[in-house]
Amino acid sequence: MGGLSGGWRVDFPHHDCDKLFALAVDIESYPRFLPWCRSARIRHHDGNVLQVENRFGAGPLQINFRSRAVLDRPHSLEITSSDGPFHSFALTWRFEPLGTTGGRVVAQYRMELRSGLMQSLAHLSLGEIERRVVRNFTERVRAVYGR
Fold first, then answer.
1. Which helix (H) or strand (E) segment is 5 a member of?
2. Closest CA to 96 of 108, 79, 109, 80
3. What Cα–Cα distance (Å) separates residue 45 from each residue in 20, 41, 89, 146?
4. Mean pLDDT over residues 106-110, rounded?
5. How far is CA 85 from CA 7, 9, 92, 99, 138, in A?
6. What's the confidence (pLDDT) of residue 94?
7. Taking the CB of residue 115, how many other CB atoms lie within 10 A of it?
8. 1 pLDDT more than 60
9. Nearest to 140 by CA among 40, 24, 38, 17
10. Confidence of residue 64 (pLDDT cuts 50, 70, 90)
11. In terms of CB atoms within 10 Å, which end of the chain has fewer, N or C?
12. pTM (2 decimals)?
């Protein structure tokens, strides 16, 4: 079974990397902008490493899994998992300076699901999920920081 990968990039000319990083590492607020994220709870914090319990779902379908988040403030956030539905999952958020006052968010992911059916469904819906994540994260930045 082949893996899936993709990513996105968003420029925020009025918000620096520190601010953007702060929103991305506010993992417990993910249900506010990640499609189908029902909860994300930090269960252990050891230095720059977080252990997180996640619940995603739509309707009667609920998926629980643990993930690991490694923080490199304010440069990157790496989220990985091989629990629950994932054979492997990696999402990297990178934060790059943009001009003198702004920041760029570059996110890249790759994943392989244990179920071929779920892998096929994910493949069909990834484009829409990416669009929603970008739109929702952008709206969250504006709601928290303005502009």
1. strand 4-12
2. 108
3. 20, 11, 20, 30
4. 96
5. 20, 26, 19, 40, 28
6. 98
7. 12
8. no
9. 24
10. very high
11. C
12. 0.91
**Beta-strand pair 49-58/61-72:** antiparallel
Residue at 137: amino acid letter: F
* Whole-angstrom distance, CA of residue 69 vs CA of residue 49: 6
Domains annotated on the chain, with CATH: 4-145 (3.30.530.20)
CA angle 10, 11, 14 (to 5 degrees): 140
Could you write out the DSSP letters of every residue in 69-124?
Answer: EEEETTTEEEEEE-STTEEEEEEEEEEEEETTTEEEEEEEEEEEES-HHHHHHHHH
Encode pLDDT of 8-39 as tens digits. 999 999 999 999 999 999 999 999 888 889 99
Structure-derived torsion over alpha carbons of residues 35, 41, 42, 43, reported in degrees to the nearest 10 = -140
pLDDT of residue 121: 83
- Total number of residues shown for the chain: 147
